[in-house]
Amino acid sequence: MNYKTPTKAIITDAGFASRYLPITKTIPKAMLPLGNRPIMQLVVEECVEAGITDIIIVATPEGKAIYDDYFHNKVEKIEAQLHKQGKDDRFEPVKKVLGLANITVIEQDQSLPYGNGSPVASARNFIDDDEAFIVAYSDDVVFGPSAVKDLIAAQKEHPEAAAIIAGQPVEHEEIKKYASISLDGDKLVGLVEKPAPEDAPSDLASYGRYLLTPEVFQHLDPKNIGLDGELWTADAIAKLIPTNRVYVKKTSGTWMTTGDPKNYFLSHLRYVKDYEDYFEDIKKFVNNN
Predict the structure, then answer these.
(1) pLDDT per residue as tens digits for the range 91-118
(2) For the range 175-184, what are the long-range contacts, defined as Cβ-Cβ under 8 Å and sequence gap of 24 or more?
(3) pTM for the whole structure
(4) Structural domains in the chain?
């Protein structure tokens, strides 16, 4: 079966983010800023750039209200005040947020086990049986060309695909943090979640950008828990490999993770380098202190 080109994306931020406590007891991790935009907005913008029109954000119960407020609250009092002050330009970034896409925020199904597959399973009712869809983890940001756009282009080459995953190489010792990819041409033949470096089939890492089809939902089942007793998207994709219709797209943008404070800081520096005009000031400060 050939599935329709994706117009929907599931973006997940439903974990505890324990490495960021105490701030993430109040603020969802993907609401941490890169410049004056939260991480989540950059992921949404990447999807929109690729032609996605409908986005389902899967959040914790506490995070749902925060995302709803960010993407839907028109803050008309602020707009009116800025207009009185002749500062309408300062409100333009808010208008951009409000008009990005059709964004729905849901809570993760609390009956599901912990794991990065559970937010995806929670959004099952939003996906039609004949359409492919995008899954994006908000831990990951992509600078430069959209990885989502790359995945959709790959589906045009492989309309029969049951799944297409994004991959980029990492340092050998870093592969233990990711799912390691084994390839035959551009077909996926193996996916090992967080292997020891000596056991990894390659240093090509799967990261949080996927083009999936409804076939994956049969494997995102609480009975199929894996490493650390969690429900993993990578495990569900691996179960599709025998169909011989799972592909890998080596993406062209620069993937960076914000999953821990060090890499979040490095991602923030990259954001400033690409989008702000004070990067040279930061370099001078570092060199002089």
Answers:
(1) 999 999 999 999 999 999 888 878 888 9
(2) 175/200, 175/202, 175/203, 175/205, 176/200, 177/205, 178/205, 178/206, 178/207, 179/205, 179/206, 179/232, 179/234, 180/204, 180/205, 180/206, 181/205, 181/206, 181/248, 183/248
(3) 0.94
(4) 8-288 (3.90.550.10)
